[in-house]
Write a structure and sequence with these properties.
heterodimer; A: about 350 residues; alpha+beta; Rossmann fold; OB fold (Dihydrolipoamide Acetyltransferase, E2P); 5-stranded antiparallel β-sheet; 20 strands; about 25% helix; B: about 300 residues; 13 helices
């Protein structure tokens, strides 16, 4: 009882402002799909269009293959979990959860029974008669999920529901959400600006910027093979070099920068060179290629890794993250060393997707 | 208290407190106590005041009984003391006024709080406030003109052909009810608007998303949330209506006597302040009881209303 969702050239305008710009994506039934992007990128608008609170200006939205344009939110097989949860504070927990059933005319005893079942599903036993104000943040979260599940939606839409929780609880709820999704098999569409959340929970992630979908891929590819500079910098940290491509061949190229000439992958159009800090190697002797002499300016021991800031002779700051395997010696600030990286771990990427991508 | 002292200094603070106490004790509490005291005294010639006949009794209060008339309450006939009849009808029609103001104010306040764009809100509020700039006397007279036999309402209805003969609008309690609704509808509107405005719109959307039709969203989400606002609006409109003297004095028909008019008659025309005070306290007492019962029935507490 889960449905796929097709967004077919969907646009949404607010006056002159185009909030969503030609978005195309097919979300599979039972998939955990995240829209990831900074605030104002149009991800919430997409969610509101799927749930029916906003109509697309152009394009078609299909849920389970059926065009849902013109259907009211209460006619669509979707359930939305709001950012602030929007629980009904004047109803006890079980009535909150059973509200969707009450609307559908289910008798009271049946409703109560179903509410208890759902409370058990989200690990909230014995809370049926409590009021919303008596629950903690994480518990409210679960009630909101149970309330949405009660109407047996084909698609669950979640609008940054974890953003109000503290870090520990957020991490716990990530796993919980993922488990509930697997247990119920419902399609989850999750909106977030937190890359860790998106990568940890999703089957696939769609990265958005300025209304456009930049890349849709599984979390691994999003992180390891970003298609453009926006995706690379929004998801994770980078050392970025501006420069020019020289003698490109077989997906590899030389890249001339003010710091030096580097070898790197060139998957598509030219742009800037991106290298992740954890792919930087710090060594006392120069490497064979992609090696730059640097002076360390700042060394911070973070526990599981060591963060090293360094500056090149030309004044460019570079960042490396060295894994702490327990035996690594921690270099001191002021030391002269060489920073290098493997050409396969560096990519030349265009800035961001062009219109209609 | 310490804050006040620090901010305004000793002199000013004590002046404020002194003036507040003067207003509350000297101008409000003491006169009320004097009236309460005199409500138990008999009406005597000046020479006998303080004499042997001037003793406390419930005599004034008992004056409400007697002079039985036929009371026709929606086809239900039974004999009732004339003054009690007026009293009961005043309470009843004040309730009617409260109900009508609620029916009018609920959709309007919902529209203002949740539908209309915030940009046009100041204009709409101005339009609502403009009638308040005109005195209640003038507004009551305006309604009198509208409702008279040859007035604009009858002319209009006859012109468009809804009625063929003038209707006597100024009859029974309808003119008082109409004018009181007009005079006090804003006292219902603003508490309701305040209550609805504090409702998180996401809750309305959540109910919508869960499949609820509009009426159920109102019944289960918006109405319960607005209950304190409804309660404070209802208390205000009810008390103001039951205690209104001006509106019934101007627009009342001969068949629709308001209890405040009875009190006024006793006090000013009969010159019997003692009995008038007794009647006024009865009105206050029964209105308070009516409000408390209503609050019990609708399960609202005083602290809800104060919010």
């Amino acid at each position: 009882m889960s449905a796929g969702i097709d967004l077919d050239n969907v646009c949404c305008d607010f006056g002159k402002f185009r909030a969503v710009d030609h978005v195309n994506v097919n979300i599979q039934p039972g998939e955990f799909f995240s829209f990831l992007g900074p605030s104002g990128c149009g991800k919430t608008t997409i969610l509101r269009m799927i749930s029916g609170f906003t109509e697309p200006t152009e394009g078609v939205i299909r849920i389970g293959g059926k065009d849902v344009r013109g259907q009211r939110p209460n006619q669509r097989p979707t359930a939305l979990i709001f950012q602030n949860l929007a629980l009904f504070p004047l109803m006890p927990i079980w009535e909150n959860i059973a509200f969707g059933l009450e609307v559908r005319g289910v008798p009271k005893a049946k409703r109560r029974e179903r509410a208890e079942e759902l409370l058990a599903l989200v690990d909230l036993h014995d809370s049926a008669d409590k009021m919303v104000s008596q629950l903690s943040g994480g518990q409210k979260q679960r009630v909101a999920i149970a309330r949405a599940l009660a109407v047996e939606p084909a698609v669950m839409l979640l609008d940054e529901p974890l953003s109000a929780l503290d870090l520990k609880l957020r991490q716990h709820m990530r796993a919980e959400l993922r488990a509930i999704q697997k247990r119920t098999g419902v399609t989850f569409i999750y909106i977030t600006h937190d890359q860790g959340e998106a990568l940890a929970m999703s089957d696939r992630v769609g990265v958005m910027s300025q209304g456009r979908l930049q890349q849709v891929a599984n979390p691994r590819d999003i992180y390891n093979n970003p298609v453009n500079g926006f995706v690379a910098s929004f998801v994770g940290e980078n050392n970025i070099f501006a420069g020019d491509v020289q003698n490109a061949a077989d997906g590899m190229a030389s890249f001339a920068t003010s710091t030096g000439t580097f070898r790197a992958r060139l998957p598509g159009a030219a742009g800037k060179l991106y290298v992740r800090p954890e792919h930087m190697i710090l060594q006392s002797t120069p490497g064979a290629e992609n090696s730059v002499p640097v002076t360390l300016t700042e060394v911070a021991f973070e526990g599981n890794f060591i963060s090293v800031h360094a500056v090149t002779d030309s004044g460019k700051t570079m960042v490396a993250e060295l894994r702490n395997d327990g035996s690594a010696t921690i270099p001191a600030a002021g030391t002269q060393m060489h920073m290098a990286f493997d050409a396969r771990n560096a990519a030349i990427l265009p800035d961001s997707a062009t219109a209609g991508a | 208290m310490n804050d006040l002292l620090r901010r305004y200094g000793k002199g000013l603070t004590w002046t404020f407190i002194g003036l507040t106490f003067f207003w509350l004790i000297i101008l409000v509490v003491l006169p009320d106590f004097k009236l309460l005291e005199s409500s138990f005294r008999p009406y005597l010639p000046v020479t006998e005041v303080g004499g042997p006949k001037d003793v406390y009794s419930f005599g004034n209060y008992l004056q409400i009984f007697g002079n039985e008339v036929d009371f026709n309450f929606f086809g239900l006939h039974f004999p009732l003391a004339a003054r009690i009849k007026v009293f009961v009808l005043t309470i009843f029609y004040s309730g009617v006024v409260t109900l009508i103001t609620f029916i009018l104010a609920y959709p309007l306040s919902f529209y203002l709080a949740k539908v209309v764009s915030p940009k046009s809100l100041p204009t709409l509020f101005l339009l609502l406030f403009v009638p308040l700039w005109v005195s209640e006397v003038l507004r009551s007279f305006a309604w009198y003109i509208i409702l008279t036999l040859k007035g604009p309402l009858n002319v209009f209805l006859m012109t468009i052909g809804v009625i063929s003969k003038e209707i006597r609008w100024i009859d029974g309690y309808s003119p008082v009810v109409v004018t009181l609704v007009y005079a006090y509808v804003l006292f219902m509107l603003f508490p309701l608007y305040n209550a609805m405005q504090s409702l998180d719109s996401n809750q309305i959307e959540a109910a919508d998303d869960l499949g609820a039709p509009w009426w159920r969203i109102h019944w289960r989400v918006i109405l319960p949330h607005a209950k304190p606002g409804i309660a404070s609006g209802a208390v205000m409109v009810f008390m103001l209506s039951a205690g209104s003297l001006l509106v019934p004095a101007i627009i009342n028909s001969t068949t629709g006597n308001w209890f405040t008019q009875t009190i006024q008659g006793i006090m000013l025309e009969g010159q019997d302040w003692n009995a008038g005070a007794a009647f006024a306290f009865m009105l206050l007492l029964f209105c308070t009881i009516a409000v408390s019962v209503a609050m019990r029935v609708f399960r609202v507490s005083l602290s809800d209303i104060a919010k």
